[in-house]
Amino acid sequence: MTFRLSGALLRFADYERSIEVSAATLGEALRLLVSRYPRLGSVLYDNTGRVRQSHRVIVNGVHVSDLSQEIPLTNADSVELLTPITGG
Amino acid sequence: MVCSPQGAGMDESPSDVEIRDVVQRRWGALLAEVSDGADERDTTGAVLPAKYLAAAGEAGPLSFAAPKEAGGDGKDLLTWGRIVEQIGYLCEDLSFGVLVNIAVSVAHCLTATGRADLVAGYAAPVVRGERISGVAYTEYADPFSLNTTLTRHGGGYLLSGFKSFVSGGLLADSFLVYALDETGDMVGCLAERDDPGVVVQRVDSTCFRSLGGASLTLQQVPLAADRLVVASDGLAHAQEGLSFRRILHIGSPLGRAQAIFETCLARLNTTVRYGQPLADMANVQAILGQMYIALQAARATYYQALSIFTRGEAEPGFDPVISAAKHFVIEQVQFVLHRSLRVLGGYPCLEDLRFGRYLRDFAGLVPLSGAQDTIEVQLGALAVSQHRFRSATGART
Questions:
Q1: pLDDT tens for residues B371-382?
Q2: DSSP string over B157-216
């Protein structure tokens, strides 16, 4: 599967916009992504190990709001990570 | 954890006349008193006196939309947003509306924790106007690189860092401070103004000069464990609070833009040139028509966003419709102001000096609760993402 990164996340992944990972589930794919780019860890996850709610995880164009369940992936799948945040 | 009253339900929506009547009858005297000192405060940089927020607590506007658990009336957000608009119409000092909305927002944030101590000690006094609480989020860094930290120390915490701007900071008794913990996650905690190591300093500004903007220096501030309010994912918590304030903060300027429009009508109707009132000239009427269109379109957008929030349909954190509404309404009220300067000639420059304050305050709406440019970037990115989905599936979203 392929991650697509943009915006605030790019600098934590060496500005790679497209990253290929071989994983069977979304959870596994995210863990592999963080193992490759460790600085993404504290950015993607909160201190309880959950994906921060400010990130939008979009699997094949569909926003996945409930990340507590495992979502199966194939090599053809695309996962977009968007982080729409603003300052105060 | 949510920190806004999204989905709290919609009451039967009152008419515009009823809204105007309620605001004028209940709070007209207070708003007139606040208005009287607006010019002097703007000139001298004096902070809006805390007594007006205390009066807002006693007289009701603070409690109207505040949660019932904190002693508020818990009215729906659509009605509250329309009341805020009317407050902006009647009140010359836009800082008043901003401070009232922050108080309502903080009351919801703290009540949503479900902790009786925070409701009794912070939220309820804020609703009653007895205490003022600021939100300390902004600093010279992006949210993933905050320099403010909360570290464990004994049975509690140490809070260190610097917040570059806190709206109402000079007035605040306490602060909801966002900081990074040892893991790099954002958390939220409460600091009192008189905690050892807390230093509040005035920040001068070109706009909202009566807002009491301040920086907050936190020098190894010891906090008891119960001061931790948001234990994890404080970024989501902060973004939800910002989204709530983003929609509320545009109400007062919208009301003020309507007042500016009416000032134009009155002035142009009584200014005679070449034997006729300026308001009878077609080019003047065209400009007034443009202003009217901008106001009506902004109002419709504002009400739609308020309705989405009230029905509980807003997306948590960054909601595209609410953010688009903030962006659009601010652009429209600035348009109305700029057209008024165009059509009024020398009057706003030489006779009605309030227009100088309007110019600066309206400029200050650009960064308020999410900068216009940032909103554009986020909305564009979301649109591109949705387009890719439509292209891939042929679906319409």
A1: 999 999 999 999
A2: EEEEEEEEEETTTTT-SEEEEEEE-TTS-EEEEEEETTSTTEEEEE---SS-TTS--EEE
